[in-house]
């Protein structure tokens, strides 16, 4: 093959192999939405599923998405033993469903004789017949050699004869699958190098699994050895430990190895968004530490690092975050030196004079609070309030003078039938010269307290619009001091959202979970009022 | 170097580099617990932190854990420019804190001139002086060459001269750091090969980050090139995208590459447990698809796979799950779920007849509860109570007919001085024919409820001894349903201990955190009474 060939084709299997993941069950609508996202990224091949295997895949192929850049591929199996290709219902169904077909077959002699229980030659005939037959029905056929690397190690000649049978019968690609995911990068490199001496690399693909956490490295090793198609999934979704993660492979091939993967630089800036589309469909929190696209991928916490990053980002960033649609974050923490905290202030637009006394106090205050268990990483809104208060920029909007929460349970009989269940909160709040008192119920003490506080603030005309918008979307509790039973110090983090789609996170800490929750709630409401430019009525 | 040298040393940086992770803030108690877990696994070096950098690390080194197998290491920096090593307060503090010291320094010329703003030769002197000085104070000194790979690519000779300065001054190890995490495995291999031609590989270490999802592969490439120390963290914890994941590297080095990493086969079977200890400390759900140790790592979903796996596990498993303390999971059939639950019953010593109707109901009950959010993994005591109750083996000891918790806060003035703070719980409890009522205060609602309930049970002479012993040592809260604000379903897990040193964990689930906590508390007390062989007075 021509090693200078810099075009690597991408093949996405999120909708087929990704579907095998524990806990994943795509609907046809999910599949369509994900296919459209892959199309936006210009992935060459989108494997839609296995027609005939389940009702979802049938529904998807019956009404396939219109794709602008990508080609839809159907997955299936070579013909059954002892049956002609033209007479095989599986192959017939495949031909009807998509312009491109990828068929899986055996290349490990042990699997042929043990799992299929057939002659080795019959397996080669099944491969060749199926490829040759479908080649006359669809525009492109490829062959997935299941267990190729285990097969090669057990019987090199037979494994090679299986993929040669496919190639010689007209397969556009023969794809080498590390089905069990146990092969290491140097083995992959050596074996693919050998394969590419027999079949041009421009027709060789690689399909890896992450069982040793090497799926990305294995895919890159295969490309270095000459393979020119890479199969994988978004975010590494897939059975067991997942498939090779295309979200990591794409920028590495493009930005570090100089390959053309059919994705433009503009499309690459959508990488983070595309990764998040899959998480949304799965109702999962995106992985913070995901390579390239995670929230933490360009986050800087250590104090030493931060001052260096500000001087020159190349000191601690391997690529520019903007290239993959990500951005730099400066984090605040116990680790942080002063420069860290000051950088964070600048990021949120608080103008600070590093020499002022107020700033010095603020830095000490942050450090002390973090020692107490506050964690301002991921609770930027509470951090901003603290800073603006220290700078004298924050008005007080209301003052809670007292609250009381009552939580009651009564059971009726020996069978523990619960007959009374009640959570009630009372708050007294001062706004300006007015004192308000309100009471509300909830399905738990914090929910009741939240309801009672809002009830008051909604009666203040100037606050109403802002408060009405606040929606609490996540509530996390963490015990900080351990080994102390129910006396432990608790950290509550609340994430809120408004009608314009802004998200913000606030934090509260106390030995009392109700009080910790109240602190985080208070910050959440105050932050929204501040950001909405509402004038304080408290005076 | 002698390439046949099969001993690779492991260096864990969970407590130092792992601490840099967004959202991670270890307490000194966390650090001690994690160090003990690492010691159980026989990790050669445990980096405890950076003495002098923050109060937590100071507290940890002031009272270091007693280690049986591992050696504690302190992290620090080479001497400052323009100061003698013997006069550097950082070095002096390092020498006092641990028998082994690892110092970081620059090896990239650009960083020396730009970030430090000093002459290249002064940097070499800083390295050599610091190593030579500390070598006289502690038993072992190593050098972390920050940005080594970027430095090598920019100026090979200077990067090599930096590590040679450290080696020649007496560093036991020079550790090559891919600080930005952007180097690819083939580059690592080539560069480490070159380094090992100058410094014996038996003195060369590797420290990788996962910014391209290649940290594991990079570490393995360095070992293949001759490096004999691998630095990493548990579960790949660490700044940005994390450090190299020792949990993946250890079994690969041992089981696939034939290296001795100082971990015995028996210790290797603790790998999954050790991985989970870190997650527990971080109050994180373990990653299902983690290589080797994840719940999904040996889970089989596809119907085709499952029958093949049952015939011969080697068809779809790259190693035996038991070697790393994991197990095979068959996900498809209800039948598999059932035998799984039955196996768990047998594990805790509950003798079940699979054909009995009670068992059928129990299995359905467990499945329903797990669907509701109960997690009996890690809450074996609650699971056992459920099983024994279904089998008619569990007496009821008491019946709470009602409880009420009142939580109140009052503030005095505009400065938010808190003047009244009160958590009070009232319970009504029936034991046999007697009805008790009691009230207690606590520093939070759950603590008050716990106190009130104990107050009653301590008055029952037959229960007194057992109840007196119960100590709640951990209390964890996790929100299960997301995106639902303070209405979310909450899971509370309580860990208890008795005077004989037995530990047990119980679980409660509810939308109301007080009720979830009560359920877990009730189970904890019931379990202790049952295990103590106390006869029920409830009748």
Assess the beta-strand content of chain A as a share of residues. 15-25%
* CATH homolog superfamily of the largest domain in chain A: Aldolase class I
Main sheet: strands, sense, barrel of chain A: 8 strands, parallel, barrel
CATH architecture classification of the largest domain in chain A: Alpha-Beta Barrel
This entry's quaternary arrangement is homodimer
Alpha-carbon Rg of chain A, integer: 30 Å
Pathway (chains A, B): Amino-acid biosynthesis; L-isoleucine biosynthesis; 2-oxobutanoate from pyruvate: step 1/3
EC number (chains A, B): 2.3.3.21
GO molecular function (chains A, B): (R)-citramalate synthase activity; 2-isopropylmalate synthase activity
InterPro entries (chains A, B): 2-isopropylmalate_synth_dimer, AIPM/Hcit_synth_CS, Aldolase_TIM, Citramal_synthase, LeuA/HCS_post-cat, LeuA_allosteric_dom_sf, PYR_CT
